[in-house]
Structure formats: C-alpha cells, structure tokens
Write a structure and sequence with these properties.
2 copies of one chain form a homodimer. The first copy, chain A, is of the alpha/beta class. Chain A is built from 15 helices and 10 strands. In chain A, 48% of the residues lie in helices and 16% in strands. Chain A is globular and about 75 Å long. The N and C termini of chain A lie far apart (49 Å).
C-alpha cells in the first residue's frame, strides 16, 4: 500500500462521521419520504414540504445524488434513484441500526481514547452523568433504551431461527438461557426448538424477573419457562444440561469470558452442552466482507462496556477447550447470506463438557 | 445500483464513525508511535508501553491490520506496515484534520437534523451552552479554538501560495482582505504578491484588531498593512481596488452570499477586482475524487454555522454576474495535485466590477 493510497484511505475515514449523519438526516428530516410520495420536487418544494430552508435541503442532498441514492435533473427536480428500489423492510432494518449507532455511539466515541485507557465509559458518563455500562444505564434513559431495544429485537428476530436451526436439543432438555434478559430467547427456544419434556429457564439479574414472566405469559409459554435471578459472575445455577449463551461473550475481555465459561463448566454435568451465539472476526482479519472489526471494538470499548469485543472463532474454540469443553460443531454465517447492510457476522459454537 | 449494492453502501456509512475513532484513538493512545519506536511488540507489550489493557490494544488494532496500516504475525507481534511509509509531515497534516473533525464535528453531528430545521447549532449549544456560530464560540473554548486554529493555519499555509500564484495584482494595488481574521492573509498577500505601492488592509470584527496588528509587527509588515474593524453585512469600506474573499463565502446560504457580493460591488470603483478562494463542488457532483459534498454540508449546517456549504463553480459565477461582476478567470485545483488525505478541493474566481 503506497503512502498516497494510505492517505486516501485516511480521507475515507475522515468523511465517515459526516457521511453517516448526512444520510441519516435526510431520512430524519422526511426528505426521502417526501420524494417517495411526490417525485420531481425542487429543493424549494422539498423545503416547504419538510420545514427546512431549501439551501440546507440542497446541501444535504448533494451527497445522496453523488451516491446515486437520489437523482437530480435540472428542471425536473429530485427523485428517488437507488433508494426507490430498496424494499421498505430492508430500509427499516438499516435505519434502526443507524439510529442505534447515532444514539448509542456517535457522541460517545469522542471519548474512545479515555475509555480504552480507563476501561470505563467516559462518554456515557459525560453525556448522561451515569456510571456503569450501557446495560446499567438503559433502564433510566429512554432514548438509549429505545434505540437499543428496537435494534436488538430486530437482530434477535433475524438471527434466532438460524441459531436454533443449527444446534441439537436432546429430548427432555433442561435449558438455561444465560444472561437471557427478559425472556425472548427462552420464548424462541420453546417455539423454535421444542422437544418433549423441555423446560427453559432465563437466568439474568433479579430486576428482570417481572418483565420476563410477563413475556412468558404473553407468549403462552409460562408453563414451560421460568426465571432465576442472579449474576453470571457470582455462580451459575445447576440442574441444567443445556446452556445457551447468546449475544453475551463478546461483551467481555478474555479474563471475564474465561470466568463465565468456567462457571458454566462447573454448573453442568459431564456430557452437558453449551451453545454459543457470538459475532466473530474472520480468521484472516483482512477479509473485506466481514465488518465486525470496523465496528465492534470501538462500540464495545467506547460505547457499551468499556471492554470486550468479538474474537476469532479459533480463539473462542481455544478458550472453550481451556475450560474443559470439547467443541463439537462450529458454524459461521456466510456474510453473503446476510442482508448487505447488516454488520454482525455471527457464529455458533457447540461444545460438550468432557470431564 | 441494485438494492443489495445500496444496502452495502449503507453499511459503509454505518461503520464510518467507529472506523474514524478507532484509527484516531490508535494515534492518541500512542500505539502507532510505540510501534514506530519498537517494532515487533505483542499486545501485552504494547499495553504496557501505552498504559492500556492488552485486550483493548488488540481489539483496536484489528482494524488497522485489516486495512494494512499495521502488520501482525503470530509470534512476531505488530509492526507498522503502510503507516511506516507515510512521511511524518503528511501524517501530522492528516491528524490535525482528524482532530478538528473529532473536536468540532463528531458529537455535534448528533443534532444535524435539528440544526437543519432551525438553522442553529443545536449540538454546539447542548455541549457548550453557547449561542451563535462556531466562530463566535471559539474565543471562549480553548479545545474548539485549538483544534480549529491548528487546522486553519495548516490549510492556509498549504493553499495561499497557490492562490496568490493564480491572481493578478496591479501595481499600486489597495487591497482589502475581507473577513481577514487576525491578519495572516494580509501578511501572505504582502509576502507572496508584493507590487510597488501596495497596501493591504484586513477587514474583520473590531475585537480582532489588537491581535491582527501584533501579527503585522511580528511579520515585519506593519508599515504596509492596516486593520479596519466592522461587520461585512453592515457595509464594506471604500477606497480599495482589490478585494480578497478567502475561506468565507462557503459559510453562508445564497441570500447572505448575494448580500456580501452586493456589498463588495458597492464598495469598489468600476474596474475594481474581487478574488475569491472557496471550496467548490464538481459540476458533475457524482465525481468520486471530490470529497467536498461528503463533508461540508453536514459540517457547516451541523457544526460551524447552522447554514452554508460550498457551491459549484458555475453557481458562484452566476451569483457574481447577478451582482454586477464579470468573471475574468477561474481555476479549480486538480484533486490529483492535492495530498490524498486533504478534503477541500478549492477554486479561485477572479472578477471585475463592470458598471
């Protein structure tokens, strides 16, 4: 890579924040919807329609025209170009993710350096006066909670069918959904992976219990699902033979992951299974179709946890073996099978306690 | 452009903010300097050297390895790859720009939508409690001032020789540097474009006078340069035959630009000249080697002015003609001649008052 190419790549990085917000603002301002309803509007007409000075409309749309998202012709105004061909469901998914990035990450990233130095969320504290992780803070801050929850529900709905299609569930399985939040994972387990005699228990902080039990009732699975309150790092309940760990290990540094896996190992009988769903970096990190490294390190360290980030599949495999598990199956999602706007490339690791 | 390609492009936008801060943080944390001093360090050794947990060092470096900026080999640690070949002077320039974007724009962009709706800097107000534009606020906020001033000095030093090499200066010229700030433009005018009998006057807000006159003395041009205090929108001083407008017109919407140009027209004698230096959008906005539209609309509307943004050269030409000028010469910088990290692609418009 020449110095010139390196500097050109720096410039791509430099325009990253402005590009991101220019695109998102054109949606937030209603400009895209207005053009969908009535193609051919001028900047003046668009400005009237969305309540923004035409000069600003024209400025923000320059980028969308450059990208071919929106078209412009002298005398014929603006119209949706490539954006007009994207199904609404896809746009909604992408916009939920963009909104999450804006609310949970954009401003917080300013303090990434100090967050990396201290292992704390300096940006979150400066903006919200809050100590702790994003997950501690969402309860009290609706903007963070809504941006986050909307995204996680979308992610879970899209990825759980793939997860449950790729794990084995023995008859009579007693399943523990580790850090199962308010029960959606348990509901999906019952709905997507039902076997005779199965019981699913959500394990998470005690304050999640009420909402979790309500969710079980609302989904008609209250007879088959239950809740145990506790903290993963203080000990994991025994009496289960299948443990699910979804969207969780990537939140922690190595020491904490090892602690969690040791805890799971201790809680399981020999022959018990653990099934892990986690985004992974490609073994060759220079693969360009995997965007996990472009996003997650800064996101976890600077915006949500003050630590953590995904690993390569081989790293998780090594850690599982180090903790007394035999890895029986791994599946990495082919990035080409994911919608092209989706960042996380997930993998599944299934492992058995050997001794 | 297919829906798939459009969504893939959205993903490039989504990772823009995290990519930007991950790269900048690796410099801020001292990781790049540490690797320059001692190639081959492991994450643990780097962590020790810069005071950051090795897990975080490893996470942040994944992206730099993906990009080929930094190399990594098992057992041989990290070393500078492409970054090792970039001259220090180029890196410093790029980092000054990145720091400016971080301090002046990154967090402020969160409020771009509201800034576009209101024409005010909502983000600047929320972060600093300050009303007004960035230029009103820098005096009181050192972080903003330093990030901004460092960048503008670099930009001015790089671009002024090109500007003065491309304008004519008649013997005995009485030059007014409009919105000339604290006099650097006037100093450059005298140093780079000296003609017999020339006099250069900086015109800007009265509070700039002291620092401006100090600058004239420090540069040994106090005999040939002077200062007039005032506001461009309240009337432009007469008695000059050359007006320079550098880095200024792009800060305003059309109405204000027309007001400025009408004011300059009124102040000049017939035959008087105006020379404008301003970033421009390409006539075909889809040209990919011009990054002005990727940056300036959001930057001006959301972070510095609440309005403004560059225009196409043809637009500035039309506005000049509308205000009674004949455009005598235009030059647009060839983007290929700029260092590859530099965002602004500038142009010069020279025009004469015809009647």
């Amino acid at each position: 890579m020449t110095p010139e190419a390196t500097l050109a790549r720096f410039r791509e990085y430099m325009v990253g924040p402005t590009r991101f917000m220019t695109l998102l603002s054109c949606f937030e301002l209603g400009i895209v919807d207005a053009l969908r309803d009535r193609p051919g509007m001028t900047a003046a007409e668009l400005g009237d329609a969305v309540g923004v000075k035409p000069d600003a409309v024209e400025q923000l749309l320059f980028l969308l025209v450059k990208e071919g998202f929106v078209g412009y012709e002298d005398g014929r105004g603006y119209s949706l170009d490539a954006l007009g061909g994207v199904p609404e469901r896809d746009l909604k998914r992408a916009l939920a993710y963009m909104n999450m990035i804006k609310v949970v990450a954009l401003r917080q990233l300013f303090n990434l350096t100090e967050s990396a130095r201290t292992g704390t969320l300096v940006g979150l504290k400066e903006l919200y006066g809050a100590e702790g992780t994003l997950y501690d803070v969402v309860a009290e801050h609706r903007d963070l909670r809504e941006a986050w929850a909307k995204l996680m529900d979308t992610v879970t709905a899209n990825i759980d069918p793939w997860f449950f299609g790729n794990i084995d569930m023995p008859s009579g399985a007693q399943v523990l959904d580790l850090a199962g939040n308010t029960g959606l994972g348990a509901v999906h387990t019952y709905q997507m992976k039902h076997v005779p005699g199965m019981r699913v228990t959500t394990f998470d902080l005690p304050e999640k219990e009420t909402e979790c039990l309500e969710n079980f009732r609302a989904h008609g699975v209250a007879e088959h699902c239950s809740f145990i309150g506790g903290n993963v790092f203080d000990g994991i309940p025994e009496g289960f033979d299948v443990v699910l760990i979804k969207h969780f290990l990537d939140m922690f540094d190595r020491d904490a992951v090892i602690q969690i896996l040791n805890g799971v190992h201790k809680s399981l009988p020999v022959g018990g299974q653990v099934n892990i769903l986690v985004p992974v970096y490609p073994e060759d990190v220079t693969e360009t179709d995997n965007h996990n490294v472009d996003f997650f390190p800064a996101f976890f360290i600077g915006c949500t946890m003050g630590q953590g980030g995904p690993q390569k599949l081989s790293t998780y495999r090594n850690w599982l073996e180090e903790c007394g598990f035999e890895v029986t199956r791994t599946v990495t999602k082919d990035p080409a099978e994911l919608p092209q706007d989706v960042i996380p490339v997930p993998a599944i690791l299934s492992a058995t306690k050997t001794a």
